[in-house]
Design a protein that fits this description.
Helix content: 25-40%
Order of helices and strands: EEEHHHH
Bound molecules: zinc ion
Number of helices: 4
Number of strands: 3
Strand content: 5-15%
Distance between the termini: 33 Å
Strand order of the largest sheet: 2-1-3
Shape: elongated
């Protein structure tokens, strides 16, 4: 069953509506203020992250490091360092320790599971 979201033009809040089929889509009134000025909004559930968005969020691997960059212990935390560098901020000591530990093979548990 498709779930649609409708954005209210009056109050800006979203109303979720369930439809039995794609053909029966009918705009519901805003459940927050009752306004009929609602418009289809892209559903959060129906928009998986694109590669570009993932890159944007997690940073890009070093060019030339190859597709295994993330698996190479020496590359761990590299983008994080670059991010902090770009922002002109010093990386927190805990983050640095974790990265150092990871590079020397002591992967934190969540990373081991990859
Ligand atoms: Zn509204």
């Amino acid at each position: 069953m498709p779930i649609y979201e409708y954005q209210c033009a009056a109050c800006g809040k979203r109303t979720e509506a369930f439809h039995r089929s794609l053909g029966s889509a009918k705009r519901p009134p805003c459940e927050h203020c009752g306004s009929a000025k609602t418009a289809r909004a892209l559903s959060r559930f129906a928009t998986p992250k694109s590669d570009a968005q993932v890159m944007e969020q997690y940073g890009t691997p070093d060019p030339g490091a190859g597709p295994d960059a993330y698996k190479d212990p020496r590359q761990i935390g590299r983008w994080a360092e670059q991010r902090f560098d770009e922002m002109g901020v010093e990386m927190p000591a805990e983050a640095k320790q974790m990265i150092d530990a990871a590079r020397s093979g002591e992967l934190p548990d969540p990373v081991k599971d990859l």
